Amino acid sequence: GEPRKFDPKFRGPIHNRHCTDIICCVIFIVVILGYIALGVVAWVHGDPRKVIYPTDSYGQFCGQKNTLNKNKTILFYFNILKCASPVVLINLQCPTTQLCVSKCPDRFATYIDVQASYRYRPDQWNYFRQFCKPGFNNPRKSVAQVLRDEDCPSMIIPSRPFLKRCFPDFSTKNGVLTVANQTTFKDGRGKTRNVTDLREAANGINNVLDSRSVGMKIFEDYAISWYWILIGLFIAMMLSLLFLVLLRFTAGVLFWIFIFGVIGIIGYGIWHCYWEYDHLKGIPGSDLTVYDIGFQTDFKVYLQLRQTWLAFMIILCGVEVIIILMLIFLRNRIRIAIALLKEGSRAIGYIMSTLFYPIVTFLLIAICISYWAVTAVFLATSGEPVYKVMANQTLCKYANLTCDPETFNTTNVTKLCPGAQCTFAFYGGESLYHKYIFIFQLANAFVFLWLVNFAIALGQCTLAGAFASYYWAYRKPADIPLWPLFSSFGRAIRYHTGSLAFGALILAIVQLIRVILEYLDHKLKGTQNSFTRFLLCCLKCCFWCLEKFLKFINRNAYIMIAIYGKNFCTSAKEAFFLLMRNVVRVAVLDKVTDFLLFLGKILVAGGVGVLAFFFFTQRIPVFAQEVPMLNYYWVPLLTVIIGSYLVAHGFFSVYAMCVDTLFLCFCEDLERNDGSTAKPYFMSASLHRILGKKKLSPKKA
């Protein structure tokens, strides 16, 4: 290829930089200001009380202070049978009158029975009346008119509050669903119905109520054991640090033990297959072929055939030969990979502050998530109350049309549709702002993805700059600049915000498309159109691959930006071609790094998990008295294991970035320099030794 133009005076990350991708930087700042403005507008218009408090048919919050409903915190449904499931009740509106009440009904009663007995049982009337519309106290009004105007519910059922709404008080008795120990109830319209009819109206509530008690127990366990969980995570942190520091001594040993272990296991597999093959010799039926016996559901039948063991033996021999050949031909590249891993461990040893940088990324992402979530909630609750005509008659032409509750009684609707009411439906609006709420939500999600990717990019570029300053120090550690991490962070923010934002923008667009595809897939799940599902599946797969590829390109582009300070596109192109010229080294290093870091994560999470298991199950005599009494010991145990894995992942992500940076620097070093006194290598002595004669040969153009 053509010789590359290099600066012969190059000595590590360039300090006399200039700003890159300025246009993107300006757009990014404008978008952030717009995002803040969107948050402010959503905050002004939104009202999270619409999520927290239920809303009755008059558009008033239940339990809101300084209103008639201040002591009525629970929503009561006149006819819960009209509601298909609690999901409909919580998210949408149910086509029945809803009223705020102070407590849920605790007995079965029907309006017909209560009205018939109100003279000599006034207490029953007074109890039932609290579930009627406020101010209604006319037992003489005919039942038909009361039910038509929905002044009172036709029936009340023993209920208990859940999510501040009254739901039937289900329980099972001898495997039979009951409400207050009854299996049937009167619906107030002359029919006796089975309790199972209520199940459709409150499907799954029982499970959710059970899960609430489980949730309380889990919360108690966390309250008691949080101290020990933190100790477990601290141990995980120390183990992760220890593993990274020791990698400079153990990387080669761990890798070769694993490789020879695999070769040994496959070798044993070949011997076992041969033994089985030889053992079946002469046994009747063992010489049949797989084709002769056809497809069998019992896999053991195939193990009686010599042909099966011969096939296994051939496959294992093939795998063994491939592994051995790869080790022979790639031995030098594997040695380079292991040397780079050791070099990465050494670099982290000199710049320990880098290990704690993921905390900064975590905090930035946590801020982004919090802002996005709050904005999303305020946007979702920023509508005005919308009222719709609710008619008992199915043929009413005004049904489901919007209406104004203040002027409703003066319109023709009540005359044409007797019993029709203007009730609260949902929060929305007709203004320009309300029409574009969906667009605002999409913009909220998009800017959120952009900011998260920017936070990750900033972290990668900062770490790359710090580790590059280590590699390009001719005398290590004497030539490593002071505060390499802070210097690198400053350079990334001051000069390369635009480039990092550009890379993050490309990734955010792809991720948003993936989110939309997932949403469409979820919506179209019910349809039986196999072509649409196939097309969506292909698109999802393509965009997943594209995202993975972009993440790989971006990561290496940020390393080149950290070293040379060029713009995003130039850096991405140079990184890509540099990696393509060293494609085998890239593949080997990637796999060796992935394996060792995965082994490290499993060792840390597994080690801490085993320790936590013995501790929480009181199997460590020394600490037996210290163990808290738990409802479920797996709660802190799982938390410790998952937390340990995430802690290890945080530390090892820094290490992976370190190895990737050193590798790109190593490739650059090989192309720039030839090991002569005029162009000395910057690599360490161990990498020098592995390259052998190459280091003295003049660099080819």
From TrEMBL:
What gene name is given for the protein in this entry? Slc44a5
PANTHER family reported for this sequence: CHOLINE TRANSPORTER-LIKE (SLC FAMILY 44) (PTHR12385), CHOLINE TRANSPORTER-LIKE PROTEIN 5 (PTHR12385:SF42)
Which named protein is this?
Choline transporter-like protein
* Protein location: Cell membrane
> In the UniProt record, does the keyword Endoplasmic reticulum occur?
no
Q: Name the family the entry cites.
A: Belongs to the CTL (choline transporter-like) family.
A single GO molecular function, which one?
A: antiporter activity
Origin organism is Gymnorhina tibicen
Q: Which reactions appear under catalytic activity for this entry?
A: choline(out) + n H(+)(in) = choline(in) + n H(+)(out)
Annotated transmembrane regions: 21-44, 226-246, 253-271, 309-330, 350-374, 447-474, 495-517, 595-616, 637-657
Single GO cellular component term: plasma membrane
Q: Which Pfam families match?
A: Choline_transpo
| InterPro entries, alphabetized | Choline_transptr-like
What coarse category fits the chief subcellular location reported for this protein?
membrane
